[in-house]
Amino acid sequence: MSIKRLPGLTLDGQVYFNEEMSIIEAALPPGPWKTAHAPALLETKAGTLLCTWFAGTFEGGTDINVVVSRLPKGSDRWEEPQYITNDDDFSNQNPSLFLAPNGEIWALYTAQLGRIPGKDNMQYTSIIKKQVSIDDGKTWSKPEVIFPEEGTFARQPIQILSNGRWIIGNWICTDGEKGLAGDPSAFRISDDQGNSWRRVDMPRSNGRVHPNVVELDDGHLIALMRSREADYIYISESYNYGDTWSEPVPTVLPNNNSSISALKLKSGRLAVAYNHSSAPTTYTKKGAWPGLRCPVTIALSEDGGKTFPFIRHIERGEGYSGDLNRSNNKQYEYPYLMQSTDGMLHLAYAYKTRIGVKWVTLREEDVIGTHLGIGTYNPTSGEISK
Fold first, then answer.
1. Which residues of the chain register pLDDT less than 50?
2. pTM strictly above 0.90
3. I need a surface site. Which of 242, 263, 274, 284 has the fewest CB within 10 A?
4. What phi and psi, each to the nearest 5 degrees, are found at residue 115?
């Protein structure tokens, strides 16, 4: 791959080296759509990188569909995005990509009814559908429903555990008085490679959503979650391959009521991508929406999420800082983090208030090289000790 030095990021998929940040990056071709949001990544068996997201006029509209762009191995430019879904009957959102053991690439996504007058969103009508590619993400099968329970939402892809079990984190959206703030988390579990699924609920998890499942050791799982109160990333644990879960508690990492991404690296460290921001004072019974979704940050933990001694801001936005100014940054949100077979970290997120998707790749050592320490959170006092 021939990497160019960055003269200024261009919205055409060209891969550049950002000398200031010492990272490789690209702004993927945005296509003809006004909105690009909720990206996800996958490395195929051929070494191609796939990036999928939802695109259209406005989140929740029926012209919102799932698209995918490819970066073939050795190429220095992401390809123009192509449709995975292409219909005007549903708002198709939150795609994820899963490489099944048989070589199939699964694209899972939420499909909800379009907005109607008087309703802020229609997430409580969502089901989850699946489409399959067998040609390295070039073409996709017709959609089929995989989780038919209305209100089911997801973002992280299916995880295969050490005992062969498949698990995917969900949250269940309702049309109740508390709106999205009352939604709980749950999991779908399959012990027959996706032929049948059962639901496991997380206790007292209302408002703790977007669960990211990580297996720390055989059978010992954690789920890291977004908080509707915009305070902290929350964590729940399971010691029986996801059959039961603990009540979620806060970690030391802040959260701004926006999506996160987590995985266990080859080194054994836990990695989390998120917006290093919070605003709990904006909380209402329907959730906190502080609006600030910047910077995009990667944090590393060596003790399963108790502390995060290595933190690096990957996207600093327009550079505004301070409580009165930092909201002038555009939104850089919904990061998705993966590690490829060569050990590189790959990060994708919605760029400049959803005008497109940005992709970044760097080494784990690049995160460790620039860090600041965060200590332990005391839920009783609400303080963080350094």
1. 371-386
2. yes
3. 284
4. -60, 145
Query: Tokens 């995880």 map to which residue?
Result: 159
The SS3 assignment for 188 reads strand
Amino acid type, 202: M
Instruction: Judge if the upstream peptide bond of residue 143 is cis by omega within 30 degrees of 0.
Output: no
- Report angle CA 286, 325, 313 to the nearest 5 degrees: 80
Q: Provide the pLDDT for residue 5.
A: 65
- The pLDDT assigned to 284 comes to 73
For 43, the enclosing helix (H) or strand (E) is: strand 35-43
Using CB atoms within 10 Å of the CB of residue 110, give its burial: 0 to 12 exposed, 13 to 18 middle, 19+ buried.
buried
Distance CA 211, CA 182 (A): 15
Residue 59 Cα distances to 82, 245, 311, angstroms: 18, 32, 31
pLDDT digits (tens, 9 = 90+) for 159-197: 999 999 999 999 999 987 777 788 999 999 999 999 999
Please answer whether residues 50 and 137 qualify as being in contact, where contact means their C-beta atoms are separated by less than 8 angstroms.
yes
The helix (H) or strand (E) run that includes residue 67 is strand 65-71
